[in-house]
Amino acid sequence: MTRSEAVDSAVNLGGIELRNPVLTASGTFGYGTEFAPFLDLRRLGGFVAKSLTLEPRVGNPPPRIAEAPSGMLNAISLENVGVEAFIREKLPAIPEGVTIIASVFETDVDRYAEVCNRLTGVPRIAGLELNASCPHVKSGGIEFGQDPQILGALVRAARRATTLPLLVKLSPNVTHIGEMARVCEGEGANGVSLINAVQALEVNPETRRPVLANGLGGLSGPAIRPIALRMVWQASQAVTIPICGIGGIESAEDAVKFLLCGATAVQVGTSNYLQPAVAGDVADGIASFAERQGLARVSDLVGALELPQR
Amino acid sequence: MWGEPVSEASWPGSKGSDPIRVDAEVIRNAAEGGACIRLALEVPGWPGFEPGQFAMLSPGPRAAAARSDPLLPRPMAVFRTRVENGRSVVEILYKVVGRGTALLSEAMPGQRVGIVGPLGRAFPAPGPQERVIVVAGGTGIASVFELCARLARSQHVEVLLGARNAADLMAVRDFEALDLPISIATDDGSNGQVGLVTDLLEAALERFGTEDHSAPGPDAAPMRLRVFSCGPTAMMRRCAQIATEAGVPCVVALENAMACGFGVCLGCAAPLKRGGYALVCREGPAFDAGAIDWERMP
Q: CB–CB of B40/B26 below 8 Å?
């Protein structure tokens, strides 16, 4: 597929200018350089780096992953090099011309704010994504993303800590996603990203044990795509800030579905593992789709879902 | 003793090539007696590989519509590569062990299989003063063939192969063609000795210990011994134990499950003795057996 020149692919995601609406999801794209043999990162709108904590963090014991129908479970526990090593070693290795969004994760509000503050003013970081939703860290993520008051306190603190465009990555493990999105909007977030992995369990009947050493894990991949589409659509009905749609995207057609449901941009996640160049193909394919539809701009697809009259 | 660590030299002519991703055409995909299936893929632009490196293969042929179940590619050792009628051919040996390999076994010549490789850090190249014992079991046999092939001309290599039975024993003819001393153990004695391949290792180390190695090697140093091992975790754990007890260094090629193969999913973590984890895909699959925390290895 070649990129269509006739269509304007650029979008603005809460103040982050993207040359096209395709990002790669945090935790599925390392620090960017791992994909250099397979993909020119400048084909992407940008990428969201692996979540950063104040200190380097060691992950969970193995087994950390398991296959599931049309998806996979993971419980990595946000293993990362820490914010300082990211700034010192990882950031300079990313090719010029690539839009970089840093993802932030911590175990309490003050530490979240500290990481946000540390990343603010660092050259080349275009925005932050608060990981408020990681489903497998006992002391962290899940509480932030699941309780509107705790989520509100987190976004407020992060908002005070940074002048960068601020996205909040929401957990799908909630009853009312629209309410969570509204909380973020109310506290000054510039956008919301959804969904993170769906909390899940896989069991080995022979050993009577969970397959993952951690017990619970996060389900990702095509299996969660219809859930993600539903939640993106619900969030888009609740807020006016832009939405970044995530969940099992494998193709341009999948990405277009998210745009139609109200996402301004999308993130490709698990598919990067199987097809390391897929995000570039998705970006090109969206433009081709828009051209076939006779649209001038890719952004004309955003929120264009037509509901049957009742 | 003969157990000092040796330099972790790379292979002569090593280019340390970047991996490529190709939808490769299936040339052959046929069972060879027993349970072993030999897959030959034409991989244009294949940059070559080093002993112990692997590739990620799509679970089954790539059809017109993308398959999402099963989703993940499977890590498989590169058995060997060669040029056939001017085409770059990568050979993979595998067995049907689950849905992914069952689908792969249905791939017909002319169909395409996604491949990403070569991946991972190779076995270290032994020095000229080293005698090598290669211990492999099950599908781990495919991981050590290239190692044996590269060493066969220049080095004293002894090959110990194990499997449940004769039908499960991979690539015996290929190994025989290398003209190296080979010993075989099967659980039922249908080929070679009854028992485990690790029994063969114990015997080989015992024999080596009673021989005279004062005669200098090519660089006037006494001959030293090193074990290279690949197979089920229990087998490698036992190899590491036997080698440690004999004071012989041992290299293992781990076979953990992984989703990507190039250092991103962090799923293939192996526990280290010094604490923390190493990624099998990027820091391995070849590791010094003494670095692995075998107690915490699932």
A: yes
